[in-house]
Amino acid sequence: MSLYSAFYSGLSGLSTNANALNVVGNNLSNINTVGFKGSSTTFSDIFAASLGGISTAGNGNPIQFGLGSQVNGVSQDFAQSSFQSTSSALDMAVQGNGFFTLQTPAGQQVYSRDGSFSMNSAGGLVAGDGSSVMGWVRDPTTGKVNTSAALAPIQISAGTTASAFATQNITTGMNLNASAAADATSVFTTPIQVYDSQGNSQSLVATYQKTASNTWSYAITGPAGATITGGTGTVDFSTSGALLDINGVAATTAVANPVLNITWPNGAAASNIKVDMVNIDGSANVTQFSAASATSSSSQDGYGAGSLTSMTVDQNGVISGTFTNGQVIQLAQVALSTFNNVNGLVQDGNNHWAQSLSSGSPTVGVANQGGRGGVLGSNLELSNVDVATQFTNLILNQRGYEANSKIITTTDQLLQDTLAMKQ
Hints:
The chain has 2 helices and 34 strands. By secondary structure, the protein is mainly beta. Strand 22 and strand 23 form a beta hairpin. Helix 1 packs antiparallel against helix 2. The chain is rod-shaped and about 140 Å long. About 30% of the residues are buried.
C-alpha cells in the first residue's frame, strides 16, 4: 500500500467534511425561512484494499486498509416545527402530515410547507413566488365547495357578493295587555322588517286590537302598492294568558301559524312568509298578561345582497368569507398532498419540493382526512432548524476537516523524508 493512498484518504475526509459544512451552512442560513426543514449528513467508508495481495492474516482475519470516507446521504428532517401567529387571515400552516399543493407559473405542480399566501390582482390565491395555491372553489349552482372536482387554482374575487334571500319566516315575541279594554282604544302596533327576492328591505306593520275578553284581532299591512292575503285573523288566549288558538286552529303546533302571500309593487317575486306565533315544539311567542303591550324580540330569516369584507380559514382548510349582510359563506378549500416517502422529495428552491421516483406520487385530498394534518389559519410554520445542534455539527465537521488536513501534511512530510534519504 503506497503512501499516496493516505493522500487520497485525507482528501476524501476533507471533501466529506466540507460537504457536511455546506449542509450546516444551508441550515443556518434558512433558520428564519418559513416552513424550512433542516438536513443532516451521513458518511460511509470507502471499501479498503488488501495489503500486498494478502487478504487474511494467519488467523484468518482480513487485512484491509480503508481508502477514506464518502457522503452516504443527506437526509431532510420533516419533524413538525412551532407556529407563529400572524395578522393575515390567509396565512396558513399545516399541523401534521402533508404539503400545500402549488402550481408554478410554468405549470409545474410542486409542494410546500410555506403557507404565507395572499391574493394577487386577478383574485388568485398565491404563494410568495407567485405560484398558485391549488384546491377547490365554491360551485355557484349548489353554493358548496365540491372537493370531488378536479384540482384548480383557487380564485376568490374581491368583488364576490352574497346573493339576497327573501324572507320566509317571521318570529315576533310579544305580550298583549290583558287589562286593555275591548274597544277601539286598545290598539297595539309593531313594525316588521322583511326582504323581498331582490334583496330590498320592506316594512310591514302588524296591528292588534282587543275585540273581546281574551280575544284580539290582527291585521298585517305592507308598503303602498303591496297586496297581502292571509294577513288578517284573530288570536284567543286562556284565562291564564296562554295562546289558545289562531284563527280557530289550536295553537299546539306550528301548523296554526298564518302565512302571508305578498305581491310587491317593485317587480320582485311574490313572497310567502310564515308568521311564527307558535314554535315547532308548541311553545308560543305571543302571550296575554296584565302588562303593557310590547314587543320583546323580533327576527326574520331574509337578507339583502352583501359584499365580501373579510376571510377566515378553518382546520379543514376551508376559506370562508364574511359579507356585509352578515352571511358567512364557504368560498374555497385548499388541497393537501402526502407522500409515502417524504425523504424522496427533491428540494426545488422557493420553499418548494418536487416529487421523484423515490417519493412516489402524491395522495391529494382535504385536511384532517386520510392521514393528512389540519390547517391553522393566521399562522405560519417556522423553520425546524435547531441552532444548538447545528453549532455542534459545525464544530465536529470543522475538527474533522482539520484532522484530515493533518493527514495530508503528515503524509507529505513522510514523502519528503523518503526523498531526502537519497541525498
